[in-house]
Structure formats: structure tokens, C-alpha cells
Amino acid sequence: MKKIIDISSNTSILCADNLKNYDGVYIKITEGCTYITDHIDNLVNLCRLMKVPYGLYHFAGKIHSAVDEYNFYKQTIANYTDRSLPDCLDYEQAKEDISFISQFMSYDSNLLFYSYRSLCSRVNIPNNKKWVAIPGCYGLNGFIGVQYALDTNVTGINNCDVSNFDDSILNKNVTINNIVRSIGMNVMRIGETSKRVKLVQSILNAILGLNLETTSMIFGQCTKNAVLEYQHAMKLSEDGEIGIETIKMLFADMQRNYFKFD
User: Fold this and answer.
1) Which of 18, 98, 145, 260 is the right S-S partner for 131, CB 3.0 to 4.6 Å?
2) Is the pLDDT confidence value at 41 over 50?
3) Which domains are present in the chain?
4) 82 and 196 in contact (C-beta within 8 Å)?
5) Would you say 186 and 161 are in contact if contact means Cβ atoms under 8 Å apart?
6) Whole-number pLDDT of residue 37
7) Nearest to 107 by CA among 75, 80, 132, 71
8) For the whole model, what pTM was predicted?
9) Taking a C-beta distance cutoff of 8 angstroms, is the pair 57, 37 a contact?
């Protein structure tokens, strides 16, 4: 299982190094159609600095339509392309609107749904998409995740929630198309930890005949050196970063089966 905390603007991170005690961090980013979490960039950058995978969730509001809230959420998270955890709807309204939930979830088949147990039992969503609040329960009970501690304090972090997740939570799909789009907004460089790093490392290994370690998904000095080697061989700008020019050349070489320089 993976242990993951979720935080918001109400969370006090007294020691960022303690984020490393967890396999991932979920951050509340939006609520309704107008609210964006204060200092969201600071919270995301702490995860990046500590090399801890992160995800961003939407907290359902009370008065807006599902399509408006979904579009607001998706527009807001668009620039955070290195998130590793699946996107998620958090629904905790006292006056339940099952049609709102169904409509919101229908816009993205990869979305997770978070709520309390009684509501989760009544929505038509597969259990492997349900993240359920069950205080004191450390098992998964067939769900993708179970939040066992709510509004708690842990070492170095105050006012957070803690959950156990199935190992598959970190298996977010990465494709050629979404990597190219993400790099258009956020260049891949030393220090990043993500699935897109792992894919690029695998391509570099095949093309250059290297043996970069890919399981950690960390863009370290060895990966930078490999990028520089590739850029030099292909007469690209040698900056050791994966920008649009470099990623498109890599994918073109892969599609041409152009592997391993002599």
C-alpha cells in the first residue's frame, strides 16, 4: 500500500522534509467555480523540492453546475503538468446531488471520487475509483484508497488527512501526446520526479544504449548528461533539458526505430 496525505491552505507545514515520509501528497486546488487554494504554487513547489509525487483535487461547491465546476477545475490544473496522482472530485455536501456527481465524473474516466462511506455506497462508480473516508480503518476494503485519519497532526505537518492507497495509485498513464503538451507548458529538467521522466529515460536508454535507472523516475545528473549527449549528437541546443525541440526529435527517432548510436 501507499501512504498519502492530503492538504489544503489550512495545513501548516512546519518541516517540508517530513513530506518525504509519504508516498504522495494530494492538494486541494479548487472549490466551486471561484475559489483557488491560497499559495497553491508554494504547496506544489514543496512537493517538487522534496521529490514527492503530488495530485490536485476539486472540492464540490453548492450552487454551480457540474460542467462549470469541472471546466474551472480543469482550467486551473492545466499548468501543473507534472502531477503524478489521478485527478479527483471531493464531494462532501450535506444536501447530496447524485446527478451532479455522475455528470462531473462522466467528463473524465480517470477521475477518482472521494467522499464518506455512506455516499460512496450509493453512487454508481467502480470501487477502484473510490477514495473513501473510514476513520480508523487501515485496510482498503476493495477501494482504491481509504482515508483513516481526518484533521490530524503528524510529524512536522499540522491539520492534514492521511490515507492508504492501492499501489496502482501511482500508475498514471503517460502518453507521447500528453508529454509533448506538458513540455510545451513545463520544460523537463534536473530535479523533476514524474512518470514522464521515466518514459524519456527509457527512450534515451534505447537510443543511446545506456542503462539509466528508471524506477525512481528522478531527473538527476545522469539523465541530464544523457540528454546533453543526445542533443550534441543531433546538433540541438545543448542545455540538458527536455524542451519541445528535444522531445519531438526523441519521439521521431523512436518512431523511426533509430536506436543506439555507434
Assistant:
1) 145
2) yes
3) 2-170 (3.20.20.80), 176-255 (1.10.101.10)
4) yes
5) no
6) 95
7) 71
8) 0.69
9) no
